[in-house]
Design goal:
317 residues; alpha/beta
């Protein structure tokens, strides 16, 4: 029997070493949560934090609603993480809906609460679909916010990056220029918007390097736990959902367990391809659910810190 080129390629892949066999466990991770609205959502959030904490993330971040709508809940959540866990907590801050003095007062309150890391964002308008307008007495953009924060205290600052382009950007170069302005203003790293094509991230990383951006660019990973919700998010932020991925999730709306398996497979494979391309830092958009992010970290070789220590002690003995 003569094999086609396609069959030969599939055979080669099947005979190669398994994708996730014996990875070194050298991938660093971080997680994003959103502030809970109800007691039940708060229980879900803290269960997720308890599940993911043993993986020793570099930090966890807590989002900030459009127009500052979750300010108090964000502050309370971040302060509790800083107070009750050993995980470095990062708070999101945006330029929307407040003047400079008000925003910087929030930053000072974070510093006093022991929070040393801010995710500085321009932010989305309070009403979806309306253009961004800077507050008359506020920061014009994220680069200006970064500079303002650095004047308050020596915060560690993360900013956003958009591998497939921010919806408001004129072109790819405008995205790179904006990122460079944020890094030049004092940001330490960029966390990317989610994407579903490793090539999109690699192209963006190469363009950033060519522009002289030396700061790390961390890929943001969104495991697809809710397909309709993901489509909505993608439409708002300019991320493309590949047609093959849309087709892959068809028929799974009424099969949550199967959907979870598919989601973990898709996200895990993408992270493995990013890892093969030299990526060693991953940021997971958890939507306050732990299992998918935990599974992908496990595939990448990340194990609970206590288990890793015990394994090393056994080997040493």
């Amino acid at each position: 029997m003569t094999l086609s080129l396609t069959q030969l390629e599939e055979a080669r892949r099947a005979l190669d070493a398994p994708l996730f066999a014996d990875l070194a466990g050298d991938a660093e991770i971080s997680f994003e949560f959103f502030p809970p609205k109800t007691a039940k959502m708060e229980e879900t959030l803290w269960n997720a934090i308890a599940t993911l904490a043993p993986l020793a993330p570099r930090f966890v971040s807590v989002t900030y609603g459009a127009g500052g709508s979750t300010r108090e809940r964000t502050h309370a959540t971040v302060a509790r993480i800083a107070r009750e866990t050993d995980i470095p907590a990062a708070a999101h801050l945006t330029c929307v809906g407040a003047g400079k003095d008000e925003i910087l007062e929030v930053a000072r309150a974070y510093w006093e609460a022991g929070v040393r890391h801010i995710v500085a964002l321009r932010g989305d308008p309070a009403e979806a679909g309306t253009p961004f307008e800077a507050h008359p007495e506020g920061f014009a953009n994220a680069a200006a916010l970064v500079a303002g924060l650095k004047a308050v205290a020596p915060f560690e600052i993360s900013v956003a990056a958009y591998p497939e382009g921010h919806p408001d950007s004129a072109d790819d170069q405008a995205d790179i220029d904006n990122l460079k302005a944020k890094i030049d203003a004092g940001a330490h790293r960029a966390i990317s918007q989610f994407f579903f094509s490793p090539e999109a991230f690699f192209r963006f990383r190469d363009r950033a390097a060519a522009a002289g951006i030396a700061a790390e660019i961390v890929p943001g990973i969104l495991p697809v736990s809710n397909v309709a919700q993901t489509r909505k998010f993608a439409g708002l932020c300019g991320a493309a959902i590949p047609p093959w991925m849309d087709r892959l999730f068809e028929g799974l709306d009424d099969h949550p367990a199967a959907r979870q398996l598919v989601a973990a497979t898709v996200a895990g494979e993408m992270c493995r391809r990013l890892y093969a391309g030299g990526v060693r830092h991953f940021h997971f958009y958890t939507l306050n659910r732990a299992e998918l992010a935990y599974a992908i970290c496990h595939l990448l070789g990340r194990r609970p810190a206590a288990a890793v220590t015990a394994a090393r002690e056994v080997v040493a003995a």
